[in-house]
Amino acid sequence: RLPQALSEDEYERARALRQGPNAIIQGAASDILMTATPLIGREMRRRAMRSRLFLTVHDSRGADCHISEAVDYIKIAKERLERPFAFDIPLGKNFDWSWMRGIPIKADFKVGTNWRDAVEIKEISDQSVVVARKESLEIQKKSDKEMTEWLRGAA
User: Fold this and answer.
1) Residue 52, Cα to own-chain centre: how many angstroms?
2) For the segment 95-138, what is each residue's pLDDT rounded down to a tens digit?
3) 3-class state of residue 53 by DSSP
4) For the chain, how many helices (H) and strands (E)?
5) What is the pLDDT at residue 84?
6) What's the rounded Cα separation, in Å, for the pair 25 and 41?
7) What is the CA radius of gyration of the chain?
8) Which of 35, 83, 117, 134 allows an S-S link to 140, with CB 3.0 to 4.6 Å?
9) What Cα–Cα distance (Å) separates residue 115 from each residue in 22, 109, 110, 148, 154?
10) C-beta contacts of 18-26 below 8 A and 24+ residues apart
């Protein structure tokens, strides 16, 4: 319900009209992520991977990946995030993915030593993972240096 959509105030009305479609999109993204997460974990366990899922923030999923498993993790996650309806999983008797089958879903991936400094990869390959990790380390060094300087100045 969006009662502000009938508001006399133009700002309140515009805000409410943006919230309607946004709620549908964010809800679908949440459904996809919450469906894909156990599928990703199940496949990681099946392969006896050392990498671990550890964090969900809004529409993002964090994984602590050993560098040798990063490409495999990305491939597993990409397939399950972009096609959650293709896997045989019980989602409740009233859950229907049919409306989503014609909608392209694209999962993006970042690689880094921490969340803040992660770098998006353009292609899924060992080389792109190594390059992104190296870039992330350079960003981290710069960010850490700036933070140290800021803290010294604030003291």
Assistant:
1) 15
2) 677 777 778 889 999 999 888 899 999 899 999 999 999 999 99
3) strand
4) 3, 4
5) 80
6) 24
7) 20
8) 117
9) 25, 11, 9, 19, 25
10) 26/58, 26/59
